[in-house]
Amino acid sequence: MPATFLHRFVLSIGFLSLFHSAYSAAQHRSYLRLNELDFTHLPLDIIIQALISLFVIMYGVMNVAGDFKEIKASAELENKSWETFRNIPSFYTFSHRGKFLAFPHQTGNKKHN
Question: Angle CA(68)–CA(73)–CA(74) in degrees, nearest 5?
Answer without folding.
Answer: 115
